[in-house]
Structures are given as C-alpha cells and as structure tokens.
TrEMBL record:
Belongs to the ABC-4 integral membrane protein family. The chain crosses the membrane at residues 16-35, 251-276, 303-325, 345-367, 396-417, 429-452, 490-509, 715-740, 761-790, 802-826. It is found in: Cell membrane. The keyword Transmembrane helix applies. Pfam families: FtsX, MacB_PCD. It comes from Amycolatopsis pigmentata. Keywords: Cell membrane, Membrane, Transmembrane, Transmembrane helix. The keyword Transmembrane helix applies. This is ABC transporter permease. Residues 17-220, 485-684 form the MacB-like periplasmic core domain. Residues 254-375, 718-835 form the ABC3 transporter permease C-terminal domain.
Length: 843
C-alpha cells in the first residue's frame, strides 16, 4: 500500500504541486511573522538591556518626586558602592534648519562609563554643558554631523549654542522606531527638566559585594527610596521589551491565520476533486483487498508528504518574507530605514512552521479521505463524472446549520452593538461584534452550495447574452457541482470580505474624523506650540488682528494651578471664545458669567473631585499668590463638545498667575473672500520668526488624516492580499483539475462543433463567474460587516456613518475577475490543445 501511495503521488505530482502553492504562501507568512517577532524581540531586548548593563542596584523615588543630587550623594557614601549616577530624561526643543523648535528626547549622561546605557558609534560623549551627542535618527532627520554647531531653545526662548561631539546608539540597531534622542551632561539636561532631580539612580557595586546586600544597605541608609537588584531590574526591563514585540507579532499573525484558513479551503477542495477523479482507482484498490482504513491512511499520507514538501519551501520563503516584514515595520518610524534585518531561526520557529503546514494540510484532507473510504468496490465497474454525493447533498442538515449559525452570529452582533453604549470599553464591543461577523461569514460559507445556482443565474445573464453558447455552457458547468464551486469561491470571498470590511470601516472613520475636525475648529488656522512648556508671545494675537486678511483671533492659555489643596490643568480663554472655542454641554449655571473677572467653571467630575458646588468660593493659587474664585458653571464634555477640567478667562488668569504670559493656542479665522493662499501667507509670515509656533489648518489636518488612513489601508491590503492570491491559485487549481476531469466531455463538445476558441472562452467565462461570485459576495458581506462594526464603536456622542468607497470596491471586483481570468489561461489553453481523438479515448 505504501508503494501504491508513493506511485500515486509521483503520477499526480504536477497536480499536487499547484495545490501546494497555497500552503507554501501560508507557511511563508507564518514563518516570516514568527521570525520577525523573534527579531524584533531580540532587538528590543538588546536595546533595553543597555539600560541594565553594569547596574547592580537600581534606586527609584518612593514617596518623593525625584532623586535629588543630595540623595545621590548619600547613595555614593553607602559602603560597597563603587559608582552611582542619576538618570533622567526630558523633552528638549531642538532648533532645526528652518529655525523651528522640534521636540526630541534628551537623556542625562552617566559619569561612570560602567553605567552608561549607550554605545558610542562616532566621536565621543559630551563632557561640558555646551556639548551634545545625537543618535543616528536625529543625525539623519536633521542632517547633522559630528563637529557641527546646533542650538537648543533656552528657557527664555533664546538659542543656546551646542557642539555635536558624538553619535551614539541605544543598542545594536542603527536607528530607533520611537523618535530622535540626544545625550547631554546631567547639569545641562537638568536645566531643561521640569523637576530639579533625577527620575532614578543606578549603582555599580564594589568587587565582591552582593547585589541583595547592597540593595538593603542603600534602602536603610537613604529613606524614601525603593531599591531593586540588578537582576530584578534586568528581568523587569526584558519583560517590558517582550510585551512591545509581542503586540507586533500578534497583529501580523492575525493576517497569517486568515491566509492559512484560505489555504486550508483550497487544499480541501483540491483533495475533494482528486478523490472524485480517483473513484475507479480507489474502487479497484478495494477490489484487490485494500481495507477502508488503508485507503484513509493512503490519502492522509499524501497530505502529510504534501504538507512537508510545501512547509519546507514555505519555511525558506519565510526568511525572505521576514526581511520584508521587518522593513515594513521599520518604515513606520522616523529614520528607521537603516535598521538591521534580523533572522533569528529558533527550533520553535522551525517546529511551528512545519507543524502549521502539515496540520493545516492534513486537517483539510481528513473529510476527503473519509469520503474515499466510502467508495464501494462496485464503483470500479462504472464511470460517473459527478456522483450524487458531490452534487446533491445540499439538503435539510445544511439549511439547519446555516440558520443556526446565522442566528448565533446575529445574536452576538446584537450583544456587541448594544454593549457599545454601556460601561463596557469600546474595544470589548468591537471584539464581540467582530466575532459575530465571523460567525455570520461561516454561515454564508456553509450556505455556499445553496447560493451558487441562483447567483450564477443572475451573474451569467450578461455573459450568456453577449457570448451565447460558450457562456451558457460555462454557467451550466459552474452550477453542475455547487459544492465544488462554493468551496472554490469561498476562499476568494473570505479575502474580499475582509478587504472590503477594513476599507469601508477605515474610510467611514476617515470621513467621520474629517467632519469632526471641521466642527472642532471654529477657525481656519490653529497656532500652537511645538513644546508643551513654551507659550506663544503676547504680541502675536495683536499682529494677527491688525492684518486686513484676518477676521477674528481667539486665544487660549493652558497652565497648571493649585485649586484648593490639589493641582489641576486650567485653560484660560478670551471672552469671545465662550460658546465658540469653548462649547461644552452646560450642566449647572451659566458659562456667560465667566466674562466677569474672578469667576471659574469646572467639568462636573472635577467639581465632584474638589467637592465644590455652584456659587462656592474656591481658592486658586500660583507661585505669585492666591485668589478666591466663584464657581459659576459646571459642564460635561463629549467628542462634539471638548472642554478643559477647569476654565476661566484671560483676565482672571492674569490676577491669579500674572507670571504666566503668552498663549498655548491661537485660533485664526480669515475674512470671507480671502483665498487660503493669502491667509496662509499672512499666518506663516507672522509665525516664521517664532521658533515654537506650529501652524495647523483644517485642510492640512484633513489631508494628514487621509494620508494616515490611506497608508494604513495600503498595509492592510498588502497583508490581506496574500489570502486573495492564495484564493486565485485555488481557482486556477480547480479549473486545472476540472479540465482533466472533463477531457472526454471537452472532446465531445469539439466533435459536436465547438471550436478551440469557444472551448477556451467557455473555461474563461467559468473562471470569471467564479471570480465574480466570490468578489461580489465578499463586497456585499464586507459592507454589511463594516456597518455592524461601526455601530459597535458608535455612541450617542460619536456616531459613525458608513461611507462605502464605491470606486475602490468596483476596482476590487474588476481586479478579482481579471485575476480569475488570468488564472484560467493555462487550463483553457491545455483543454483547447488536447486532440479530439485522444480526449475521446480517455477513461
């Protein structure tokens, strides 16, 4: 039996090879994803491990905000401490070549080289307050070099000259995915920090001193600190690194799973056709003594060998896929193009890749293998092109299963949509609804054989009218075996459904966000600051108001003040901004009373936090003094009515905090009739000399949102596209096997007068009908599922309307049909080239 199985594989190698492509692509995606995850994990762990290099004890504040220089000196005096340095980071305003301040992340440099978390790539580390080192991302982004002069923006908005003395790396990767970094001496960095101390301290122990013992000594000698041994610090850091890479791997594995599901359907259909074609062969085996279990094992052996073969090729292809995926992940970060590609091949990756390929293939072949055991020996005496078992079993049980799955899916979707407005997080409602759509999709897949006939009658109207007899034959062939046609088109339907759902959901979200941008911006331009701790100059609003192209200017100032005994974020607005820029939903009181100096308004939850009510006198203080302000209104916020926790007018802020001068945000509206180019020129001219000024416009924000969504969609289409490619291989495979199965039929049609061209046309139309069926069903289902998903993430404050990108969806259907036609070219050519006499001789 083993020899018979191997001989059968050899004789059918070409057919099995085409089928293997589906598994090869699926395994390549899975392998590439796993290797990419390991590579990112390894890179992140090595990068994060720099933080713990040489550290025997890590000290963090416990009960205080920071580790002050005095506390650091205490740590250094503890017996057994060889070296101790503070670590902190803050956002620094770097002045770029255009004279604008751009925030970068600044790190303090450890004095002892054993405790430094950076690797020097070029030059040296800074030793003086006017020296700085940069990472490769900052070097590339700002076009800087060692020895070059640059500037940071000082506290008083004056340029502070710095000299670049080195280039460093935080790990083995030549770039970072998270922005640009610079390193300064501790004194230079603390001059920019919001707090005078360090966020933590790292300690190197004397030779022979135990980490646990040293940690206990430091904890006893320095109060209000929390100590951690170097080993504990390393373990905690590596756990954090692992979580970051795991999220990327899980995201990619979702699409890999989709590809494998589609590949499994293709393999299932292939083995089903092969078993149908081998009816007489299997019956003869039964006649000469083969048992049913031997036939079953024979078919599964073919599946195992096919899975191993495809997995080996897919594993090799997965290495290249990993390189592409790593480049894709790296491309989302600034300056990330130079990141090294890693291909860490672990035993677990090898085992998982081969296991996935073999298991998916074998599971897909189980049902066809079981059917092979049902072939009776008597079948060797007859030849039926299509047995009733393959054609007719679309009865009561299938309908009952479809109804059951539809009810379950609809119920889950209802639960998800109803839960979206409750206390459940939106992500939970989204997940529940997404699960419901997958159950509904399963119902449609099971109902496939029931839908093939009616759908082909509708879709085949135009081809039958245009092409005549070949189209009628093609339509009849497509519905002759509804289970086979349904299994072939289901694979394509899944891919198109997911593409459509993602596209429709993203497009709808984009339309909603852009409309909200228009509502949120009661102006044409919003001028903000590129650094949170710097304000726009007082003179800028007056300069804008003096311009003949500008109709109105509204200013807001955001700061932090002490309200009662606690601190809170406070926003001061112009009196003109009330009910324009400041439009919350009032709960109690009257927002218009804010125009009276000495008044204040609060978010309802903020008022509850401070335990105050309407009319109360609330002490509000700053470094300049304290004022009693009257609470005149409370409000709620939502997506349509954003507002700060505490609001007051600029006049009131001037009394409470006279030292706060300047504005956080300036809203500018152009006069009617002024072109966007002219108004933009005015705003740019007045803001160009201000390093921290950053101009946003409604049009620019809409463009940015559209660009981000389009980039995301491009990546999603590329990932889901693999499943569509696998499905198209399935159509090609089905037609190829169908041509072999219908050799005598094709020869008979030729004998009755059908030309070679008409025979080719018949097969091409058959492929087009299958492609159109899968694509149209996918678009309809994807649009419906997008509606359900959008309903699950909608709320009374933010309703997501479905916006179908009709043009893109039409292109998707056309591409699917054209691809199906291309996949049918070789089978059609083969059928047309088979001589009539040879075809009639086939048995």
């Amino acid at each position: 039996m083993v020899k018979t199985t191997l001989a059968g594989i050899k004789s059918r190698f070409g057919r099995l090879l085409l089928s293997s492509i589906a598994i090869i692509i699926g395994v390549a995606f899975v392998t590439g994803t796993l290797i990419t995850g390991n590579g990112l994990d390894q890179s992140m762990r090595e990068n994060f491990a720099r933080q713990t290099r040489g550290v025997d004890v890590q000290v963090s504040a416990d009960g205080v905000d920071e580790i002050t220089p005095a506390v650091l000196d205490q740590i250094r005096k503890v017996p057994g401490v060889a070296a101790a340095d503070g670590r902190t980071q803050t956002r620094l305003p770097l002045i770029n070549s255009k004279g604008k301040a751009v925030e970068v992340t600044g790190y303090s440099l450890e004095g002892d080289s054993r405790l430094r978390e950076f690797d020097l790539l070029q030059g040296r580390f800074p030793a003086k307050a006017d020296e700085i080192a940069i990472d490769p991302s900052a070097k590339t982004t700002f076009n800087l070099a060692v020895g070059q002069k640059m500037s940071l923006l000082g506290k008083n908005n004056e340029p502070v000259p710095m000299t670049i003395v080195g280039v460093f790396s935080q790990g083995t990767s030549s770039a970072t995915l998270y922005g640009q970094y610079v390193v300064l001496t501790p004194d230079a960095l603390l001059a920019y920090a919001t707090q005078p101390g360090f966020s933590s301290a790292v300690v190197a122990a004397d030779t022979g001193v135990n980490q646990d013992e040293l940690a206990k000594r430091i904890a006893a000698a320095v109060p209000h600190t929390k100590t951690m041994t170097g080993a504990e610090y390393t373990n905690e850091t590596l756990i954090s690194a692992g979580k970051g890479s795991a999220s990327v791997t899980q995201f990619l594995l979702v699409f890999a799973l989709i590809s494998l599901v589609v590949a499994g359907m293709v393999i299932y259909n292939t083995f089903t056709i092969l078993i149908a074609q081998r009816t007489r062969e299997l019956a003869l085996l039964r006649c000469v003594g083969a048992h049913r279990d031997q036939v079953f094992r024979s078919v599964l052996t073919e599946a195992v060998l096919m899975g191993l073969f495809a997995s080996a090729i897919g594993f090799a292809a997965g290495i290249g896929t990993s390189a592409l995926l790593q480049r894709l992940v790296a491309s989302v970060g600034p300056g990330a193009g130079g990141s090294a590609v890693r291909v860490p091949i672990t035993p677990s990756v090898v085992v998982a890749s081969f296991a996935v390929g073999v298991v998916v293939t074998v599971l897909s072949a189980v049902v066809p293998a079981w059917r092979a055991t049902r072939v009776a020996p008597l079948a060797a005496l007859r030849s039926l092109p299509d047995g009733k078992n393959e054609v007719g079993r679309t009865g009561f049980l299938r309908i009952a299963l479809v109804v059951l799955l539809a009810l379950i899916g609809a119920g889950i979707c209802v639960i998800g949509i109803r839960g979206s407005g409750s206390n459940n997080p939106d992500s939970l409602a989204f997940i529940v609804t997404g699960l419901g759509t997958m159950v509904l999709l399963s119902a449609v897949i099971v109902a496939g054989p029931l839908l093939v006939g009616p759908a082909n009658q509708v879709l085949g109207v135009m081809p039958r009218w245009v092409f005549g007899v070949p189209a009628k034959l093609a339509s009849a062939n497509a519905v002759r075996n509804p289970k086979r046609t349904a299994a072939t088109t289901a694979a394509l339907m899944i891919g198109v459904t997911i593409v459509t759902m993602i596209t429709a959901t993203a497009t709808s979200a984009k339309e909603t966000v852009t409309s909200k941008i228009q509502e949120r911006y009661p102006a044409d331009y919003a001028i903000g600051t590129s650094t949170d701790d710097r304000l726009l100059p007082v003179a800028l609003p007056q300069q804008l108001r003096a311009s003949p192209q500008i109709e109105s200017v509204i200013t807001t100032t955001r700061t932090r003040l002490t309200v009662g005994s606690d601190s809170a974020d406070v926003t001061a607005v112009d009196t003109d901004a009330i009910n324009t820029a400041l439009t919350p939903s009032t709960v109690n009181g009257d927002l218009n009373q804010l125009t009276t100096t000495g008044t204040i308004a609060m978010l309802r939850s903020t008022a509850q936090h401070f335990n105050v009510k309407l009319g109360d006198q609330i002490p509000v203080s700053s470094d300049s003094g304290k004022q009693l302000l009257t609470l005149v209104a409370t409000y709620d916020i939502d997506d349509q009515h954003p507002a700060p926790p505490v609001a007051m007018t600029g006049d009131t802020l001037a009394k409470v905090a006279p030292a706060v001068t300047g504005y956080s945000r300036i809203l500018v509206k152009a006069k009617p009739g002024v072109s966007p180019q002219d108004s933009q020129a005015v705003v740019d001219k007045l803001t160009d000399p201000i390093p921290v000024a950053k101009v946003d416009s409604v049009a620019a924000n809409k463009t940015e949102v559209s660009s981000q969504v389009d980039s995301m969609l491009g990546m999603m289409w590329a990932l889901v596209g693999l499943a569509v490619v696998i499905a198209l291989f399935g159509i090609a495979n089905t037609l190829s096997l169908s041509v072999l199965e219908r050799t005598r039929e094709s020869a008979l049609l030729r004998a009755l007068g059908l030309t070679r061209g008409q025979l080719r046309l018949m097969l091409l139309i058959e492929a087009a009908l299958m492609g159109m069926l899968g694509a149209v069903l996918g678009v309809v289902l994807g649009g419906g599922f997008a509606y359900l998903v959008l309903q699950s993430i909608s709320s009374k404050d933010l309703h997501m309307n479905v916006s179908l990108p009709v043009g893109q969806l039409v292109v998707l259907v056309v591409v699917a049909v054209v691809a199906a036609l291309i996949s049918a070219l070789l089978p059609a050519r083969r059928a047309a080239r088979t001589p009539m006499v040879a075809g009639m001789a086939e048995t």
